[in-house]
Amino acid sequence: MVSAIYRLPLIISLLAVGFYCVFLARQPWILRTVARRIRNLTLSELFAGKQTLGRMWSEPPDPMRTKYAEQLMQNFASRTGISSTDKEPTRYLWTDSFAVCNFLALNQPEQALATIDSVHRTLTRERSFNKFLGTASEDHPTLGGLRIGKKLNERQVNEHFDERLEWDRDGQYFHYLTKWMFALDQVAGKLDKPVLNVWARELAEVAHSKFVYSRSGMEKRMYWKMSVDLSRPLVASQGHHDPLDGMITAMQLQNSAEQLGVDKEGPMLENVVADYQSMIQRGDFATADPLGLGGLLLDAYRVFRLRICGREVISSSGTDARIATCKVLLEKLLQASLTGVKMFAEDFDAKEPAGRRLAFREIGLSRGLRVISSIRFSEEASGDGEKTSIEALIQLRTFDYLREEIESFWMNEKHQQSGTYKEHQDINDVMLATTLIPRGEDYNSFPVVFFYHSSYQTEVT
Predict the structure, then answer these.
(1) What is the mean pLDDT of the chain?
(2) Domain extents for the chain?
(3) 3-state secondary structure the chain
(4) Which domain of life does this protein belong to (predicted)?
(5) I need a labelling partner for 35 at 20 to 30 A (CA). Which of 198, 212, 293, 326 fits?
(6) Cβ–Cβ under 8 Å, residues 205 and 142
């Protein structure tokens, strides 16, 4: 029998526990996080004993996973005519962009270059393969842009718009072009082929000139999809992250050009960056779409690297402004990413059957979470850190379980036999390989370290 003097406090305590359990039940992402023994951490705890956050959170490279990625890429190369001369090339710009980066990460430069050559022999030309697009040539293959690689011809001027059918029609996507710019730039730096950076900047300039438009007295906007010859829009609405993607990619290409010593060759992209920057001033980047969210995480990583490069490498005028831009943008991207990951986690069902899921979209998120987890922390006296960004980064690490669940699900051969996987096998295989290869998205040699000031005391809640 509980004494009357203790009865009321006991009842209050039980009610408090009950309310807290109800709260947790409505926050599944918290339950999953707790289930993986993620406890509250402060920055001082994280760096006690000179340990880095990355060392505490990131698993070492798994040779079996890398071997599996190699097999996926070998099959892709054979299946799509990269390594097999007796097969008709099957080129698709999004997939091939990631394939190039995968081959680099797997130390297969010949395959990366063969993919670039195959893409430029196919997607920089009309569907007959006989004529380059626009003003492109052998020496400047990207000046006319690159086709998507869809099986159906583009919609003609007098054809009725069919939203479902448009997904299967050819044309040019801006966000596919930026992926190709990124791939070319990675090869330029990794294999010391600066001409590829020039080609990437030429593509950035022509894409900006054709996709960006403005009406009298109105702000600049972008088309989402253009015709093969870039003469008319096929889908006039603006992609959610297209201006952001364009700005970050152009900044990266400029930085690479300076590092490679070819900044005097090819177009300069200051005006391109300025236009995209003006379009994202009031933009809301948050999204719960897994593929878009993964891209947002990668954008945050790229902005972080640009800031490191700007502080430590570049000596040109405008560097301080570039660093300041990256500082503000990084915070916005990380906050938007954290918001999006929480929204996705609330609705994610790891037990949902493969036939009702799209592998490449989920793997896009897995890839983003893996990339962002590669950022390390180190305390320096410079004070060059941002409390809000560090808080967001630490909290994002608590969602690593999503990456683990997604990767293990799609590595299951049974799930790869589902109709939705087989229908998109090339893009699914390549994206899966991308997330299995350690650091498969970036090959620059600059340190991936986030410097923070010792006065910051940040807790994960």
Answers:
(1) 82
(2) 36-60+294-461, 91-283
(3) CCCHHHHHHHHHHHHHHHHHHHHHHCCHHHHHHHHCCCCCCCHHHHCHHHCCHHHHHCCCCCHHHHHHHHHHHHHHHHHCCCCCCCCCCCCCHHHHHHHHHHHHHCCCHHHHHHHHHHHHHHCCECCCCCCECCCCCCCCCCCCCCCCCCCECCCCCCCCCCHHHHCCECCEEHHHHHHHHHHHHHHHHHCCCCHHHHHHHHHHHHHHHHHEECCCCCCCEECCEECCCCCCEEECCCCCCHHHHHHHHHHHHHHHHHHHCCCCCCCCCHHHHHHHHHHCCCCCCCCCCHHHHHHHHHHHHHHHHHHHHHHHCCCCCCHHHHHHHHHHHHHHHHHHHHHHHHHHHHHCCCCCCHHHCCHHHHHHHHHHHHHHCCCEEEECCCCCCCHHHHHHHHHHHCCHHHHHHHHHHHHCHHHHCCHHHHHCHHHHHHHHHHHHCCCCCCCCCCCCEEEECCCCCCCCC
(4) Eukaryota
(5) 293
(6) no
- How big is the chain, counted in residues? 461
Q: Average of pLDDT values for 384-403?
A: 83
Residue-wise pLDDT for 66-105, tens only, equals 999 999 999 999 999 998 777 888 999 999 999 999 999 9
Quick one: tokens of 128? 């007959």
pLDDT tens digits for range 284-321: 899 999 999 999 999 999 988 887 554 333 334 345 55
What does pTM read for this prediction? 0.82
165-213 residue pLDDT tens: 999 999 999 999 999 999 999 999 999 999 999 999 999 999 999 999 9
| Dist CA 68 CA 379 (whole Å) | 37
Predicted confidence band of residue 63 (pLDDT cuts 50, 70, 90): confident
